[in-house]
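Proteins fold reproducibly. Next comes an illustrative record:
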Amino acid sequence: MTFMDKVKKASRSLVDTGAKTMLKADVQFLEREIKQRKQKFGVEVYDSMLLLEVDNEMPMEEKELRIRQSFDRARKDIAVIQAKIECKKEEIAVLEAEMAAAASKGAKPSYSNIPPSSGNVVMSDHPGEMEYGFGGLPTRSNK
């Protein structure tokens, strides 16, 4: 293995580890969202029950229906967040499997989900400050 191959392997490992860390942070953020939604549900139900306790004219079935609707909304919101968490966990598992395969074989993992380059060139200087050199390609000026 050449020096450049070792550098490429180390940099790929660093990028993969960073991506895995970011996915884990996303999972923690989503889990916090679930906790916040459950807390919001508790406040909603408490407020609803407080108002419904005062309203003696409303039938018991309608009171139960209002609480049930609040629960169903919370359950739906939480299910959406849990689905996002499962997706993130699957991405982590795939990334770990690719990293393990690359480490055991010394081969590069497949990154088929990375889109091809658009061919756009990003320049850090303003085009008016660039000098055009060989073949009309921009070069940095030595001003």
Observations:
- Confidence is low (pLDDT under 50) at residues 119-138.
- The CA atoms of residues 19 and 95 lie 8 Å apart.
